[in-house]
């Protein structure tokens, strides 16, 4: 009886460890997504927005971005990236971006 109790206790302990690891892993991953805007920019948007290829508004061109934000507004800009434009592929080459990441990427490019 005692052996079984000990075994059970060990199993529960191990399971607890797995669950804790899963929870921590998720927390770390979602944190990485939120914090890694420059990395996402570099691997997706930079291909066009760094050099202004295909006439993309350039990163750091504050005037161009301010004009876009004033004329169209953030919701329209978000929609342009998500559904694509004339030259920009839908999603802007980011496969796991959500609205929040796109909004942050646009803010990042505006500076
Ligand atoms: C293959 C090139 C390319 C990539 C990659 C790209 N863009 Fe673009 N983007 C463009 C071009 C070109 C335009 C100008 C409009 C057009 O001709 O399609 C543009 C325009 C935009 C606009 C302005 C939309 C509007 O309504 O005027 C936003 C916002 C934008 N891009 C965000 C992003 C974000 C965020 C990413 C990365 C997740 C990204 N783009 C990746 C080429 C690209």
Q: What would your notes on this structure say?
A:
Keywords: Electron transport, Heme, Iron, Metal-binding, Transport. The chain has two domains: 1-35; 37-111, Orthogonal Bundle (Cytochrome Bc1 Complex, Chain D, domain 2). Helix content is 68%, strand content 0%. The chain has six helices and no strands. Helix 5 crosses helix 6. It is elongated and about 75 Å long. The relative contact order is 0.13. Residues 21-28 have low confidence and may be disordered. Bound molecules: heme C. Heme C is lined by residues 44-45, 47-49, 54-57, 68, 72, 76-77, 80-81, 85-89, 92-94, 97, 102, 105-106.
The whole-number mean of residue pLDDT values reads: 83
| Cα radius of gyration in angstroms | 22 Å
Mind summarizing the main beta sheet? Answer: none
So, CATH architecture of the largest domain?
A: Orthogonal Bundle
CATH topology of the largest domain: Cytochrome Bc1 Complex, Chain D, domain 2
> Which range best describes the helical content: under 10%, 10-25%, 25-40%, 40-55%, 55-70% or over 70%?
55-70%
Termini gap: 67 Å
Inertia-based shape: elongated
Bound molecules: heme C
What fraction of residues sit in β-strands?
under 5%
> Class by helix and strand content?
mainly alpha
Domain Cytochrome c: 32-111
Protein name: Cytochrome c5 family protein
Pfam family, one: Cytochrome_CBB3
GO molecular function: electron transfer activity; heme binding; iron ion binding
Produce a short descriptive summary.
The chain is mainly alpha-helical and 111 residues long. It contains six helices and no strands.
